[in-house]
Amino acid sequence: MADLGFARVDLDREARTGDPEVVYGAGKTPEQVAAILTALHAKHPERAVLATRLSPEAMAAARAVGAEVHEVARAATLGPTPEHHGRVGIISAGTSDAPVAAEAALTVATHGAAPVEIRDVGVAGLHRLLAVRDELATLDCVIVVAGMEGALPSVVGGLIGVPLIAVPTSVGYGASFGGLAALLGMLNSCAPGITVVNIDNGYGAGVAAARIVRVSQRVSERLSERDATGR
Amino acid sequence: MADLGFARVDLDREARTGDPEVVYGAGKTPEQVAAILTALHAKHPERAVLATRLSPEAMAAARAVGAEVHEVARAATLGPTPEHHGRVGIISAGTSDAPVAAEAALTVATHGAAPVEIRDVGVAGLHRLLAVRDELATLDCVIVVAGMEGALPSVVGGLIGVPLIAVPTSVGYGASFGGLAALLGMLNSCAPGITVVNIDNGYGAGVAAARIVRVSQRVSERLSERDATGR
Amino acid sequence: MADLGFARVDLDREARTGDPEVVYGAGKTPEQVAAILTALHAKHPERAVLATRLSPEAMAAARAVGAEVHEVARAATLGPTPEHHGRVGIISAGTSDAPVAAEAALTVATHGAAPVEIRDVGVAGLHRLLAVRDELATLDCVIVVAGMEGALPSVVGGLIGVPLIAVPTSVGYGASFGGLAALLGMLNSCAPGITVVNIDNGYGAGVAAARIVRVSQRVSERLSERDATGR
Amino acid sequence: MADLGFARVDLDREARTGDPEVVYGAGKTPEQVAAILTALHAKHPERAVLATRLSPEAMAAARAVGAEVHEVARAATLGPTPEHHGRVGIISAGTSDAPVAAEAALTVATHGAAPVEIRDVGVAGLHRLLAVRDELATLDCVIVVAGMEGALPSVVGGLIGVPLIAVPTSVGYGASFGGLAALLGMLNSCAPGITVVNIDNGYGAGVAAARIVRVSQRVSERLSERDATGR
Amino acid sequence: MADLGFARVDLDREARTGDPEVVYGAGKTPEQVAAILTALHAKHPERAVLATRLSPEAMAAARAVGAEVHEVARAATLGPTPEHHGRVGIISAGTSDAPVAAEAALTVATHGAAPVEIRDVGVAGLHRLLAVRDELATLDCVIVVAGMEGALPSVVGGLIGVPLIAVPTSVGYGASFGGLAALLGMLNSCAPGITVVNIDNGYGAGVAAARIVRVSQRVSERLSERDATGR
Amino acid sequence: MADLGFARVDLDREARTGDPEVVYGAGKTPEQVAAILTALHAKHPERAVLATRLSPEAMAAARAVGAEVHEVARAATLGPTPEHHGRVGIISAGTSDAPVAAEAALTVATHGAAPVEIRDVGVAGLHRLLAVRDELATLDCVIVVAGMEGALPSVVGGLIGVPLIAVPTSVGYGASFGGLAALLGMLNSCAPGITVVNIDNGYGAGVAAARIVRVSQRVSERLSERDATGR
Amino acid sequence: MADLGFARVDLDREARTGDPEVVYGAGKTPEQVAAILTALHAKHPERAVLATRLSPEAMAAARAVGAEVHEVARAATLGPTPEHHGRVGIISAGTSDAPVAAEAALTVATHGAAPVEIRDVGVAGLHRLLAVRDELATLDCVIVVAGMEGALPSVVGGLIGVPLIAVPTSVGYGASFGGLAALLGMLNSCAPGITVVNIDNGYGAGVAAARIVRVSQRVSERLSERDATGR
Amino acid sequence: MADLGFARVDLDREARTGDPEVVYGAGKTPEQVAAILTALHAKHPERAVLATRLSPEAMAAARAVGAEVHEVARAATLGPTPEHHGRVGIISAGTSDAPVAAEAALTVATHGAAPVEIRDVGVAGLHRLLAVRDELATLDCVIVVAGMEGALPSVVGGLIGVPLIAVPTSVGYGASFGGLAALLGMLNSCAPGITVVNIDNGYGAGVAAARIVRVSQRVSERLSERDATGR
């Protein structure tokens, strides 16, 4: 653990959980974000460090220390993206959901899986969703991002058999109550096998999806060993 | 207005609003339900009187005074069903939603429109819904009944251009909070032109749908008059 | 579908649902609003395109590309208003509800029906409402806009027999909880046949009302055909 | 204060506040209700003691010790009703609200004012309310009891200038959330001068109304003294 | 009714309800506030018109047209204060509640009763409240203003027998949820005879209190007539 | 840890935390309650084991294995009560709060402190509370139990300087929402130094109070050691 | 699809999603449960059909048609359990959570993965959880079941790197609000990669976990193919 | 009591409760904060006066009158810190919780106990918490500060036997609902003996902890007296 004065930084997260280091930018100054990014990168130069929920000022500070900035995702990465195993779909309906979907996609990419973004497939226009059914069939895991009534996971969930992580967003007004309507809708989905994360938590969905793909590789390796040992 | 001792019964509702008389059975004794049904029927023998939210005992009492009992809808009617104008679809997903859908259908029928019930078309099995698209195109108005996440109106709403009335039901558990999840989902639907009634209010949806069809006839008659008068 | 870079624009909505194209301005830059308006108008020059929830800057940008701006409704239209069939009343109580009522009226007008605005008829001054009873009788559909306790739809609903769409507004303070009190009041109305849309959703109410009038014409045409064919 | 073993009974309430003694029956056994009624009556034989929220068994026990039982109000009184000063209207809409209205009326009567019950005047049938306007003008204070959307106080409040106490009831279903919708509606009423009590609290409304009439007498006596003393 | 272009102003409120004219300033421009104040004053020069919820700019505009500005109450009056009958206590705990208490006191004064302000008597310092018990005994009606847990009305309610109107305020943080905690506390008060208004609604409490005093006078006059006529 | 088949019982709790063993009876069969009580008592015969939230059947089963049953507290103890150090007041208002107060008092007693129960001191009758001020001054810690508006802790908190633990109860109706009103009231108390436990959690309050007294002894012993060692 | 009169049964679910057939028993009669189980088993004799949320009567009816009944899980299976691939941990804290944990474990088993149940590892006794750390390291996916404050997933989530599905239960009282506290706690977990299902939804968690293991196999097969083809 | 014009200042709080004077800075101008600090300090020069919830401007004003400013705690003290008895741990998880933890620590210090701050010990990294177990064993009382899911008190509560005060913070987003999730989590903790204060109320927790330590001294003195007197 490294002490930067304003924060003790956990430098061994990957060893414990397999996930790379991440800086949660909300409530941190641009200087703090840049300092933590630099410290983590120095410790783990071989793999990208991710910083999320960045203000425009924090994005500028991250860029100044050499990080790549991802505007739509309001995030930055410092260091090389890891090799990708498995394909994770990030499906979203409206353009307002784009920041959350982009955060999820970037998290997937920095955690070792290939993000496949599919946009503009709201439930009120089924033809768009049905048009991508073949693409859906190639995915190992799906993240569905939706605000307002949050119905998209139920519809997608009926079309696929792979794990589906639903992300409610705070997009909406009035009786959406800051994303509560979408959250409740997703928790009550009639399609089985759907799991849900917090409102606007694209990062959390990305980590979960990447872990799903990662465990696949682990199982795969175990099966290979069995084959090799003749068990 | 007739005074039955325990209630003053409004006998002139149809004249004021065009809707037939209705007995709301919740909280009334079987004897009260039977007495009010009989009084209303005596005043309006030419058109069916409707009684809703009946207990098994109230259904028996209604049957005893000559009413037709509708078990699934938990309702009874006394008097001849009116002639039907226009077709109102009542679309529902799960079997648990059947009582609310049946109440809506019966209300539509007693208020002068033809109910067309379409069942088992949940959003998690789109193929069922897509299979009835041609039938949807023949309807003048649609009532969509759904519990849990309440996503069905959004999906149906994207397929049609006629008025759509959404009825959330209390079917669900946990974070459905007695139908709140479905209600919020429907109010936040991304499909335009959807309107919503109270949780489990099949009767209210039926009245609204019948009024929509009735106003159609009024417009039609007005247009006919114009034609006749050469305007 | 046209790809503007930042959005894929649905150009065929009218063919699918009968509704004209609409730009939901919330969360879009003035430039985006202007670009989408222009693209949709180029595709459908014969009928007004509507843009709602515009900031003052977006209104200016809309005006700059030739759109007519509707200040109170915070909206703009580009292209000729369609011919009007049927009369839709938009009834509101307080001056604070004016923007929502104006959005509903403009939506009705761009969707093909004639809006009839009736203002300042709050429930605490029944004499005002009773003074317009004759006008109410001429309407084919009614939209009632109210904040605070949201009681106006119940009172109007007892006076008419045509479809009534209630719009709760976020006008109020304290225990109005951003329009929740009005929303719950309308959902629990004791007047039958009332349906409800999301808080402040004047647009949604306008679409629903226009669809009700449109289906009337459809029924009317069907009846005329029957007459012509002697059925 | 008298100690009955299971309760220490306050025997001096009237001296402190002017209100008579009351037994809140919820959660008490029939024997306890009867014993407290008897003890309070022995102390104050000149004025009726009131017991509210009684189960059928508690009503029987009260009757057995000589109390008068009021079935609809689920209450009992023991001792002579006091002389009545001032007239308090108790206005209610539906028959389901009858127990709360009856509790309010009985409380008014035992606290020294004359209750005037006006029933079946729901907002969805304004003609009924307008038919009693002359009677409203004779009242010194009004209690309005309503469930569902709770709109009645707003309408009555616009017609009168005397104090109005609104009582929301738990009558309703779905999004009434046990009376919450009516409570919020009344708290947000656009008619000025309305005050509200807890859901189903007919007793509290009755006490408040009786105090209003009582303070009138006090003021009156003060004015009389001035006249007599020439001040 | 006068039409000012942006509003139709009700000029006959006093005739209908006995209350003077009031301008609710929230959401109105300074110019609108000034114009309505002037129009109402021209119609009723003999009695003060009240404007509430004024911004600093609106207060300046009111002052410019001759109104007296009440800074703490965020209000203004134009015209002479009426003669006062009866004494209404306005009891508050913390200094943060001062604006709501001042609005209530000013409303009482403009509606014809004498406000008696008693401050800094929170429940956590009972000695302060007990020190004013003699003053409490002289009041005809009491308004209690409190935020946070809203316990003050219960304590005051146990000490007096006159009507008590409780006003919850939005003062607090965290689990006060914008005044909800105080509102619920007051609605559930164990002291009988307490009625409640909306959060921060000092105006509503003042109107209700003034009506209580006004009805006292009416009763008093009625009693005098009886004396005079020998009934 | 002992495995009883249906439960693994923690036998070493006291060593870890200083608290005795407890059986939470809700959801357990009478046989399970009796078996766990017996097993824990066999392990710790020197100190009473406590069982809470018992049904009448579970109380009977506990009595059958030699436990002492505490009816009002719905609890049982098996084994000798420990020596008491320090005095903990348990102050409650209404008789309906008695079970929660009794559970708190019994928990205090089995955890090593002397409970002092003070009843019937509601905020609406301050004279009762003021009458026990001298007794309050002798207490080392206070538990205040209250339902409805939950105002009692604020009033008591202003009179004392020792730790105060507030217990909201589910006593109430309507807008008490199962104890939520009392809970929010206590969390927002304007009296400093008040802490709160879950609704109806007399047990938790008792444990916390006993720990406060226990830490006092620890501090005392530490001070004694200092004295003995001359530090 | 087979029509049983009371329900149209989906017989092709596995083909579409890979999941076996399931009967949701809530709201179905024992006869209906038995009939659907039999019909589904006849169609898919090679793989167990699962019925959940069974009443004791429905369990008896299921047993009568040859199904194996799982008492704690309130469920039944008819047909042979499939071969298991991968290990899914089901970790729970209290004995009250046992039914939900058992439903999750049985669902995992019928969906093709090996359930590993780990019980009695609540957060308030960390030593128990730390004692099973080695076992945790062998799991491919973890389901964590907890009521009350729902903290267990956060603690487990910090110890592992595989996917974690959190199931809040309705175990608790007072401010648990039927599982809401646990649900919110899990959604807000500070441990990354946690996803959540509805309150008490052990079935949904089991399906999601089994899908995660299943996708692992798919990835594994894909990798094997690559090896075989030399890609 | 001193009257500063804008506030009557309580100068005798310590005599009544043993707590020093405190200025709650929210809603007060910098000048008011400085004036009250000065007045209280003049009255009690021997002991530090505390001012909390200060804006940067108020901190500057406090510094100008000689107060020591505590930036992180957003607070100021004027006068000498009292001698410290007992050790109170303030345990927090994230850096965002620092202001609330600092306010609690400063309050403890000004109320007479020694604060021991332990940071960065979140539940998702148990190793950090386990590393400070020996330090935990030396504390007389523990304050645990946590946002998001609020699980830390449950974990700490299982490790210690001294009183634990939990402080939920508003740190979080989405379904944290401003700290509600953490608050509910703490109230439902499965670890016994935990008590809770309002969201972000570090001050209240500090007062409660200091009172716990103070009562310890009182008990200690009493025991000493007994020893001295031979009782």
TrEMBL record, chains A, B, C, D, E, F, G, H:
The record's annotation in InterPro entries points to: P2CMN_synthase_LarB (IPR039476), PurE_dom (IPR000031)
Q: Which SMART domains match?
A: AIRC (SM01001)
Q: Which domain of life is it from?
A: Bacteria
Q: Name one GO molecular function term.
A: hydrolase activity
Family annotation (SUPFAM superfamilies): N5-CAIR mutase (phosphoribosylaminoimidazole carboxylase, PurE)
Record's signal peptide:
none
Q: Which Pfam families match?
A: AIRC
NCBIfam families listed in its UniProt record: LarB (NF033503)
Protein name listed in UniProt? Nickel pincer cofactor biosynthesis protein LarB
